[in-house]
Amino acid sequence: MSLKVACIQIDIAFGNPKKNRTHVEEKMKEALVNQPDVLVLPELWNTGYDLTRLDDIADENGDETKAFLSSFAKLHGVSIVAGSVAKKTEKGVTNTMYVFDKSGEYVSEYSKLHLFKLMDEHLYLQSGDQKHLFTLDNTLCSGVICYDIRFPEWIRVHTSAGAEVVFVVAQWPLPRLAHWKALLISRAIENQCYVVACNRSGTDPANTFAGHSLIIDPWGEILAEAGTEEETIFSTLDPVKVRDVRKQIPVFLDRRTEFYQ
Ligand SMILES: O=C(O)CCC(=O)C(=O)O
Fold this sequence. Notes:
Layout: E1 3-9, H1 17-31, E2 38-40, H2 54-57, E3 59-60, H3 63-76, E4 79-81, E5 85-89, E6 92-100, E7 106-111, H4 121-124, E8 133-136, E9 139-145, H5 152-159, E10 165-169, H6 177-191, E11 194-198, E12 214-216, E13 222-225, E14 231-237, H7 239-248, H8 251-254
Parallel strand pairs: 1-2, 2-4, 3-5, 9-10, 10-11
Antiparallel strand pairs: 1-14, 4-6, 5-6, 6-7, 8-9, 11-12, 12-13
InterPro entries: C-N_Hydrolase (IPR003010), C-N_Hydrolase_sf (IPR036526)
Family: Belongs to the carbon-nitrogen hydrolase superfamily. NIT1/NIT2 family.
Domain CN hydrolase: 3-239
């Protein structure tokens, strides 16, 4: 079964969850014109990197975000890999991705495992401690967040468990655009999987963001790429292609894990 994905690359208002939610809703509605199966959003789309105010503006238990995503998914019959939001928990604030299916059912959540010190995440956020595998339309997928892509071993944990699509949501800064592209293409080639990567555009007080959301096939070919401004890109993923590439060059069977410790 093929999967049509829409990567919704947007600008994010600094520390303004209400404005961001209205904007996200508007952009998700616009994307429906092309009848995607899955909508993908960028990282921390509710608050942006307004880290010092997270205690006031993060979503309490993710309740508002979950209600909003669930009703949108159900109303429009579309799955959502909902980027991530700042979520207030008893242990502190996490950077958390939610996934909802076409009937509006909660599928999974994942809190960013690798916190990015260069942007002070370790000072304001609690890291997650779980991996992230989920199924959409009979396809096994994984979803990770931004800095996570610099850890090939973390992506491998998911693809060696069978994930055929890796969703990446990000607020990746422009000065490292070359890394963004090289890392995503490498993750696709080495894991022989689709990589669907949704970045943000625009600026905040500290950074200019790269945009260039990408959809990459299991051979490492770019199927769709956004520019630097707000833009939604689409592509249709065919899991059969993943199986064909894995058969042609059987990387997963040829691993010598006994030597990798
Ligand atoms: O690894 C990088 O260069 C960017 C990572 C990042 O911006 C993040 O994880 O938020």
